[in-house]
Each structure stands twice: as structure tokens, then as C-alpha cells.
Amino acid sequence: MKRDLCLAALARHRTDQIVVAVYHAAFDLMRIQPHPLNYYSVGAMGLASSNGLGLALGCPDRQVIVLDGDGSLLMNLGSLVTIAEAAPKNLIHFVCQNGTYEANGGVPIPRRGEVSFAGFARSAGYRDVHEFAELAAFAAAIPALLAAVGPTFVTLQIEPGEESPKDYGFIHGPETRKIFKTALQGRRRP
Asked: CB of 69 within 8 A of CB of 20?
């Protein structure tokens, strides 16, 4: 599956969720669906899951979607057991698995092709775990995934899609953080 096509399918079902996205997923999200509740986590490899957990606990009336990478998650595997222990019902954790540290030039991750991120999440104690390798199956499952009681973990077997512009000035800009903070203080889901 192409990552950008997976994210576009997910974006069609997005309402008022907070979305925490890392590296290439962040740049794809910025192109596919600019939104005030996008939290771009670029430059903090491994912290998307921890940032997502903090937002889920701090904003229990909003669903939090984490768009993680496999290389990024390897930097913080301990977050899986912490998330499972905290058991936020409003957290859904997607991992775009392509077997590389993509942000660092596509260097293969250790045990590429042998590591099961879904297996890690199951062992950690996530309530619900899924794996997808076909876009049609993933797209059909999105409504049920977003309606499930979390924490939910979803592995997406992906490959790069259309290249997205890398606007670091926007991602790291103070105005972007201000927009996010203002949106967090806005209307919340009942």
C-alpha cells in the first residue's frame, strides 16, 4: 500500500480527532489534510506514541490518532506497555511499517521482515490489534477502527507514495503550535 493513499483513506473519515504524525506521515498529512488539530512530531523520533498518550489522557473527550513509523516506534517500544496500562479508550495507534528508518535515508531496521509490531502491541496489552497489507481492506475497516474502544493498534504494511514537500519552517513554526493550541481549546466532542 502507498502511505499517502492510506492516509487519504483515513482522512475521508476524520472529524474532530487530534492527529499526531511523525516524519513522512507528517509531511503527507500536511499535504493531504491540513487541519488545526494536526500535531506534527518531526525531529522527535520515537515520541509520537508518548505524545499521543499524553494528548489522549489530557483530552479524554477527543479521539487521538497516532501516525507512527516502524523505525520511530523502535526508538520507544516501552511506550506500548505504558499505553496498554493507561488504557486510553480514545487512542488509536497506526504504525506505517516499511522496514526502514525512512527519515534517515531508508536504512533498514534491525530484523526487518521478521519483527511483528502487531505482536509487540498484543503482548503489551493493547485492547484491539489489526494488520493491513491491502488498501481496499484497510479503507473498508476504517469506520469500525475509529468507532472501537481503544487503545487500538493498527499496522499498515506500506511503501512510499507520492513525495510530499518537506516544509520544516511550517512544521516547526510557532504559528503552527499556536494554531494547534487554540484548536485544542475549542469545541469538544460530547
From this structure: no
